[in-house]
Amino acid sequence: MTSAFRIPMTGRSTDERHRVSSPLELLFDLTFVVAIAQVAGQLAHAGEGGHVLARLPFYFMVFFAIWWAWMNFTWFASAYDTDDVPYRLMALVQMGGVLVLAAGVPAAFDEDDFTAIIVGYLIMRLALVGQWLRAGIEDPSGRRTAFRYAGGIALVQVLWVAWGFLPPHTAVWLFPLGAALELAVPLWAERTGMTSWHPHHIAERYGLFTIIVLGESVSASAVGVQQALATSGFSASLVWIASAGLVLLFALWWLYFLEPAAEGLSSKRGRSFYWGYGHYFVFASLAALGAGLEVAVQAGAADGHASETAVEYSIAVPVAVFLLMLYILHAPLVDEVVIRPLKTGIAIALVLLLPLASPFLGLVGVTIGVALVASALVATTLIDRALAARSSTKEPTASRPLP
């Protein structure tokens, strides 16, 4: 950390030793805890009302805004974090924008009103443009790339402001176009030179955000337990579903951190966009899983023998998406993924088939079954690693010539 008022903003070294998240980055992440809690809570409310499919497009739209704002700050900080006073003040402005965005989530879901979200997004983007302009002025080697970022972000933001004046139904259909333009800005900007982001720092930042989303899922489950106790009282179904949910989230956390990313990002920097962009589905699926668990806890407490296929798939589908993306994102980065693809495929199939057995298992049985599948995937992967390690230690001895 530094107490200097101003440090020239130049690209940081890509092989800087012991590069970890700064206290400012950790504080910045806390604002996203609020935003993710809001969007996951709204999805849970939609699930409780039985109209989750109708509100799912709004969930993906709002989550994209949250995720993309975090992405932009994270990658910029990895390349240009000076931690001086101007940088910190710009980060403060961006944090304020996140909180404004979070405050507008209920209106977006309930009234199709994206005004507060657009205002919050505008605040964040103006601060980010200021950061890129500063980088372009103070870092001659990365000037063209930085100015391309600043211009591209500003132009797309103008389009978002105009998008806010469209009728809600028209705006929903045009949202993918705006999202595609957002994703295109970094691809276009870095054609003149890649920014000096740090692979180990980026991998750690993504891991921390994964923990944040998992934490929100735990919090959502706790909210579901609290509401279930208030409305239905204590029951064995409540205990089983809540416990299975906790085991499931723990298993998914374990699986995520089994797959290495830092070394792959270091040796294959050109695939960073693929890996970074694809994490949208990892984060969105985990947040949706939290909403599904919140609904499942309440539904199970109300009727422990009920067969709620829609609720069960609100757990199964996010888990399946998470497992699939875990393989898809890491396979291009490493020579061999840690979690075997065959085991991943079997786990995904079982998770998606379990709700079909709902007439026999019920909501409690399906939830426990999904948790057991994820736990079994962790266990078999650990066994594979142990066997591989034992085999590698025996090979030199086996090949040693006889005296």
Characterise the protein shown here.
With 403 residues, this protein is mainly alpha-helical. The protein folds into two domains: 23-195, no CATH class; 201-391, I/LWEQ domain, CATH 1.20.1410. The protein has helices at 23-48, 52-80, 85-103, 105-111, 115-138, 143-163, 168-189, 199-231, 236-258, 262-267, 272-302, 309-330, 341-353, 358-398. The chain is built from 14 helices and no strands. The longest helix has 41 residues, at 358-398. Helix 1 (23-48) runs antiparallel to helix 2, helix 2 crosses helix 11 and helix 6 (143-163) packs antiparallel against helix 7.
List the defining traits of the structure above.
single chain, 403 residues, mainly alpha, I/LWEQ domain, 2 domains, globular, disordered C terminus
Give a topology summary:
Layout: H1 23-48, H2 52-80, H3 85-103, H4 105-111, H5 115-138, H6 143-163, H7 168-189, H8 199-231, H9 236-258, H10 262-267, H11 272-302, H12 309-330, H13 341-353, H14 358-398
